Amino acid sequence: MSSGIQSVPNLLSLVGNTPLIELKKIVAGFTGNFYAKWEAYNPGHSNKDRIALHIIQEAERQGLIKENTTIIETTSGNTGFSLAMVSMIKGYDCILAVSSKSSEDKINMLRSMGAKVYVCPANVKADDPRSYYQVAKRIHEETKDSIYINQYFNDLNAQAHYNTTGPEIWKQTNGEITHLVACSGTGGTISGCAKYLKEQNPNIRIIGVDAYGSVLKKYHETEELDPKEIYPYRIEGLGKNLIPTATNFDVIDKFVKVSDEESAHTARETTKKEGMFVGYTCGAAVQAIKELAAEGEFDENSNIVAIFPDHGSRYMSKIYSDQWMKEQGFFDADHAKDPKKVEYIQ
Ligand code: PMP
Fold first, then answer.
1. Model's pTM, two decimal places?
2. Atom from ligand 1 closest to the CA of residue 307
């Protein structure tokens, strides 16, 4: 290679170091300063590039991966895409078991990146043999030389964010961050960032965003998994029907629940007002900010960082489709605000 050419060896050296962007119009009138950690700037367009790279590199370091190893995972889409990308660049096979709730765009993207994809029913219990957890486990057992990433129960998930996302936010805010607002799925992002940030300043408030239909908020408050909290919802990548060990509940100060409908509208509003084409959970994070602002969580000295996990292009057939919004009843003026009253349409 010519010494004058400026290039990177491959996309993997571009993972992380995402920008922090000041939010303006979407938070107009709110007290405090608001910033988005824009994870769509990763080469695989989401925060999940960080964990895919870290977990695979650690497995390589520990000698768990050989030339013909197959990478296996359950995923709502983003982790799958990042794993497929890292596997493709490094030359590994990748098999993914995904929930039928994942958008068709996401599933097609995984297949385009060379992954073999199994689509499993969304509305079955985690221990049902048809669930994507059980399907992935079975494939792992049946596939010689395979590793199961197991992001919900893998300590390396939060460690990736402890090593990178947390320090980046600390540096980018010059240590002046007062609040972190992050959607919690596996909990890896919020837990890893929170651990690092609280080590720098224990007063930083860590606020998790959960979905109606998920058990996380109640579990944080009561240490009990309440099955009554579980019912279908639409937001992908946020909330859970089980308790992931990747989540460190001790470093989270509180959870806020957001509805499918308001998060979808807030995502569309954020895109229109900020010119950032944001994913569904970015809308959920901004919706949480709206609710926290109304509760008086912030003052004029607050510097709030919201994690924006991925890009709006992943949701063309969902929140950015007027047809989909209409089918969900999200355009009905008198639509029930109580998320429990919303009938689930798959
Ligand atoms: N938003 C989206 C779009 C995601 O895919 C995920 C991952 N499930 C999250 C937020 C939550 O991130 P984490 O799993 O690190 O809690």
1. 0.93
2. 10
